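Lab meeting, action items carried over

1. Structure of the two-component assembly. Owner: GW. Status: complete.
Input record:
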Amino acid sequence: AQSVAQPEDQVNVAEGNPLTVKCTYSVSGNPYLFWYVQYPNRGLQFLLKYITGDNLVKGSYGFEAEFNKSQTSFHLKKPSALVSDSALYFCAVRVSTGTASKLTFGTGTRLQVTL
Amino acid sequence: DSGVTQTPKHLITATGQRVTLRCSPRSGDLSVYWYQQSLDQGLQFLIQYYNGEERAKGNILERFSAQQFPDLHSELNLSSLELGDSALYFCASSVLRGAGGPDTQYFGPGTRLTVL
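Predicted assembly:
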């Protein structure tokens, strides 16, 4: 079965420092991987996705993610964290057959950025 | 703003009742997805509709049903509600450009259901 794992429930970072939120995947075939962010009492906002091509994917709000096939990882990164980045981050893998499609999400990682 | 709208934002009801959640997809999106987010289950896929037809089914209870109408809006019906059905219900939509085509799902703000 296709799945993603987020090994950290919470990541704490000081503002201005680089941040990494980890995600590993288990899929058969080519992985389509996504990162979403959820702010309190809000829906999920799309950050970025990996389909194919360049292993470094750039997304919204200065975030990027590095796809590593040998390590089956898709870690989310940002060079300099902001307090406003504090939120819940979800990694997801798209599972599809023809026009049947769904996202399978990880358990989420809470990012806390402090001054 | 993702362009996906959901109503109502909040819903409080009693056990045994039935509710209907509504979703309007982004303009041009043919596919609608429903997800449930709860503290114990996390984010779980419920069901997908594509251009009016059911395409994929996840961990959706038999007490739950959904449909997508000709104008592409969708409704999720939850019946015989139990305390454990309290959760945030999200709708998402995507273009879904045919088999294998990569698509991004855009999520609505969700409906928070509280069953008392």
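2. GW to write a short summary for the group page. Key points so far: The two ends of chain A are 41 Å apart (CA to CA). Residues 17 and 31 of chain A are 30 Å apart (CA to CA).
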